[in-house]
Specification:
alpha/beta; 567 residues; flat; EC 6.1.1.19; Arginine--tRNA ligase; Arg-tRNA-synth_N_sf; 4-stranded antiparallel beta sheet; Arg-tRNA-ligase
Length: 567
């Protein structure tokens, strides 16, 4: 609904700017503390017109013509700014649109195909706390893009032939595999033992090198052992992702781009640019004109490819199948992602968009799978669920155990996801489960509780026989400040989706979710709903609660959080 408002504002301002004798193709709209929208266009036009921004703003305001039935109420100049207010048509139209469109409200306004890659952790053990930010950012972005209307395919790119996988494959032949453990944890156990063995006996590293050469040459027996190791780890990783409400559509493997010939082909394409040279026996790419002093190695001295080479082939493949390709990478991939993008540009291929995030950690410190010093995501999720159960038990002791367990799982996973996604990707963060599960703070549980509160109000209204969802209501009666504020906040759902889809900054949607929940709670605090004396007004306010329930549910789903009906 807010996107329609912006479109109408843009049209009205375009006409006024033209009538005032100016030219502009961007109205420079943004949020305002004094109105529903504000335009800074007068600042830009002032230098061209050689007039003060204040005079320009007043001239444009004098030419404003608002069509009948518009979503725009008025446009006024305030100093150099043009402030814009929404009309009652906007307020009432939002309520009616939510009631009509329900779960579809605010979405499906974009089109195009997107391939989004996230997580892609090496299958040498379970996901640990350091991985989950990648998974949650990627999954949330996918949900935002899908709800906006894009055709999104989510990828987990599987490293099934690198050095770490060679070590895992070697380890399965030298150490006992614990069949009773979750497979990714059992893989980590033999991987850690193998690294200790290789450190103690460096001469055995040659065995790892040999395995890597064999798999690249297509040796069937070696490939089979690699596939077995990778399959075990990935099966366990998928279980963990499912616990976090994260799912991928495809799990493309690196080896597929070797066997298809794509890697050999892209190496030749890069050579054809004249950028390659031999450096100590390795084939490297010179990217100095792109700002990279360090060359990019694409072939080892023994002729085998690197992860980067295979990644280039993968990105070329993706670029041929999508309008946009998006990667979620950790900060340690910042250099390589820039080199990858520059190389693709050099050979005329579609470049990916990157979301680079700093790492999340626990108060205990950093983690390393190689050394065995890590806290698995499974352990964290189990701990969170236990703590959430204790919190639910404290608040609802009278409820049965299955209720407490169900709510604890929904709230626990929601707390983890929200606490991770609420921080902008470029900022590092420490995950503290006590903070995340604090019902009094405006985190995941607060938003989920707001949805549950709306459900409770509606159930009570039904029980008392004062709410019939199918009956029409009079949205014109919703005039209180807290009612209007809530409606305007709900109307912004599509705008927030659009902004996040364009800027790839999902934390802003998390902020919106918190503000929406707060607006709903302020509304319920300041106006009487079930006890409103006027029957029509009461029906309209109950309908507004129902609208809030639907938009809160849509918002929670977009963030990958459950929407409990009772807490």
């Amino acid at each position: 609904m807010f996107l329609d408002f912006i479109d109408q504002v843009t049209s009205i301002l375009n006409d006024a700017v033209s009538s005032a004798g100016f030219e502009a193709d961007d109205m420079e709209l943004g949020p305002s503390q004094h109105a529903d929208l504000s335009s800074r266009i007068a600042f830009r036009l002032a230098s061209v017109a050689k007039q003060s921004p204040k005079d320009v703003a007043e001239k444009i305001a004098g030419e404003i013509v608002i069509p009948k039935g518009s979503l725009v109420e008025k446009v006024e100049a305030l100093g150099p700014y043009l402030n814009i207010w929404a009309s009652r048509n906007f307020i009432e139209g939002t309520v009616l649109a939510i009631r009509e469109q329900k779960e579809a409200f605010g979405g499906n306004f974009s089109e195009g195909r997107i391939l989004l890659e996230h997580t892609s952790a090496n299958p040498n053990g379970p996901l640990h706390v350091g991985h989950i930010r990648n998974s949650i950012i990627g999954d949330t972005l996918g949900r935002i893009l899908k709800r906006a209307g894009y055709d999104v395919e989510l990828h987990y790119y599987v490293n099934d032939m690198g050095r770490q996988i060679a070590i895992v494959s070697w380890a399965l032949g030298h150490f006992e595999f614990d069949e009773s453990s979750k497979p990714d944890h059992a893989i980590a156990d033999v991987y850690i033992k193998a690294n200790a063995e290789l450190n103690a006996h460096p001469e055995k590293v040659a065995e790892i090198d040999k395995l890597m050469q064999l798999v690249e040459k297509g040796d069937a027996a070696t490939i089979e052992t690699f596939d077995k190791a990778v399959g075990l780890a990935v099966s366990g990783i998928k279980e963990t992702l499912k616990k976090m409400n994260v799912a991928h559509d495809e799990f493309p493997k690196e080896s597929g781009f070797i066997r298809s010939g794509d890697v050999s082909r892209i190496v030749e394409e890069i050579k054809a640019t004249g950028r390659t040279e031999i450096d100590n026996g390795a084939l490297v790419v010179d990217l100095k004109d792109y700002g990279f002093e360090k060359t990019l190695v694409i072939q080892r001295t023994d002729g085998t490819s690197l992860y980067t080479t295979r990644d280039l082939a993968y990105h070329e493949w993706k670029g041929e199948r999508a309008d946009r390709i998006i990667d979620v990478f950790g900060a340690d991939h910042k250099l390589i992602s820039g080199q990858l993008k520059a190389t693709l540009n050099a050979i005329g291929k579609k470049e990916p968009e990157f979301v680079i995030f700093e790492f999340v950690s626990l108060p205990e410190g950093s983690m390393s799978t190689r050394s065995g010093k890590f806290i698995s995501a499974d352990d964290l999720l189990d701990q969170i669920k236990t703590q959430a159960y204790e919190e639910v038990d404290k608040r609802r002791p009278e409820m049965p155990d299955d209720f407490k367990a169900d709510v604890a799982e929904i709230v626990g996973i929601g707390a983890v996801r929200y606490d991770i996604i609420k921080v902008s990707p470029e900022k590092s963060t420490v995950f503290d489960w006590k903070e995340a599960l604090d019902f009094e703070k405006q985190g995941g549980p607060f938003i989920q509780y707001s949805h549950a509160r709306a459900c409770s109000i509606l159930q009570k209204a039904k029980d008392e026989g004062i709410w019939k969802p199918e009956e029409p209501i009079n949205a014109a009666l919703l005039v209180e400040d807290s009612e209007v504020s809530l409606i305007k906040k709900m109307a912004m759902f599509d705008h927030m989706l659009d902004q996040c889809a364009k800027e790839l900054r999902p934390h802003t949607f998390a902020i919106y979710a918190r503000e929406l929940a707060d607006a709903f709670n302020q509304f319920y605090r300041f106006v009487s709903v079930l006890n409103a004396e006027d029957e029509q007004l009461r029906s309209s306010r109950i309908a507004l609660v129902d609208c809030a329930r639907m938009v809160l549910a849509n918002t929670l789903d977009t963030l990958g959080l459950g929407a409990p009906e009772s807490m």
